[in-house]
Amino acid sequence: MRKLLVLALVGLAAQLVDGALGMAYGLTSSTLLLFAGVAPAAASASVHLAEIGTTLAAGVSHWRFGNVDWRVVGRIALPGAVGAFAGATFLSSISTESAAPWMAAILFSLGAYLLVRFSRPLRANRAAGRLRSRFLAPLGLVAGFVDATGGGGWGPVATPALLVSGRMEPRKVIGSVDTSEFLVAGAASVGFLIGLGSEGFLLPTVAALLIGGLIAAPIAAWLVRIVPAQLLGAVIGGVIVLTNTRTLLRAGELGGPVPALAYTVLGAGWLVALVLATRALRRTRRARATAEAALAAQTADPVTDRPAPAVTPVAEAAAGAPEEPRRFAAAVEG
To answer: Which segment, 79-83, 236-240, 289-293, 318-322, is predicted with the most confidence on average?
Structure first.
């Protein structure tokens, strides 16, 4: 019972992270399960089976709030499902000893990517045009494969790629990626079922993760308004990097002063990333305040010098603002 309670807390924490960042439910859950001694294939299989429920709930919520671009979902989900099925089949075919370093390396790389991603502000270019299948299909295929073999990675691969493209509103990027993950998680679960059989799923673990995730879903919507995603992403990235470093050091049979040196270097890098994330957050807030002040000045009554009674949406009112304030005003609305 104590172990199941811990697993439920793992699912709750992972869903809180995913709800705030639009990514990292599987990444966080798999890392913590591996740290607890669960076999890599069983950890990934259990996480993906639990994700069927959590992604369904997330997808319905995003749909009701209008955060889903169904055109993007259709073009990224199907290749993602193919990649996830292939990744699950691959992971099921190799031994636990061989899978542990492989999975740890993927998780380490994704954690490092989160550190880099959230240590700097994201620039958008909304004039770049619509997303095409020749971009979405390969992205979904790679993200799905990495997600199944690494126990997570759909969000960390797909979400930043779509955000960097600058062709979608941030809220629609998160909503579309979360909604399409339902199909990806289902395809990965089928692959694990074929490769491992029903005994490959730790059903008590699945139930605990699912319960924790469902409890956290509404809390995550509140948390994202309190905790800045910029800092949360950098914190989670550092935890994932340091946790999986332990497995990599063991696989390489590195002893003596090497582990201490590795943890020191990575800890220093994590601290630098947190400092950069804090600075990026402050710059974003200053730019946002400047944009809001510019919008207030543009909509002010020329006689009374007070804001006009009719207030237009932020992104529409920012249409005539300078480039930098307009970018952040659009981000505020998104």
So the answer is: 79-83
Backbone angles phi, psi at 313, to 5 degrees: -60, 155
Cα separation of 270 and 295, whole Å? 37
Phi, psi for 307 (deg, rounded to 5): -55, 140
Task: Find residue 300's DSSP bridge partners.
Answer: 307
Rounded Cα–Cα distance for residues 234 and 130 (Å): 30
Burial class (CB in 10 A: 0-12, 13-18, 19+), 315: middle
- DSSP for 89-103? HHHHTS-HHHHHHHH
Q: What letter does residue 257 receive in the DSSP assignment?
A: T
Retrieve residue 42's tokens.
Answer: 């069983």
Structure tokens, 41: 């294939």
Q: Are 145 and 87 in contact (CB under 8 A)?
A: yes
Check if the beta carbon of residue 238 is closer than 8 Å to that of residue 79: no
Residue-level pLDDT at 79: 94
What's the rounded mean pLDDT across residues 111-128? 70
- Alpha-carbon torsion (17, 240, 113, 50), positive or negative: negative
In degrees, rounded to 5, the angle at the alpha carbon of residue 162 between the alpha carbons of residues 291 and 19 is 80
For residues 53 and 210, the answer to whether their CB atoms sit within 8 Å is yes
Helices marked H in the chain — which ranges?
2-21, 25-35, 40-64, 70-92, 96-118, 133-150, 154-165, 170-196, 203-223, 229-251, 258-298, 314-317, 323-333
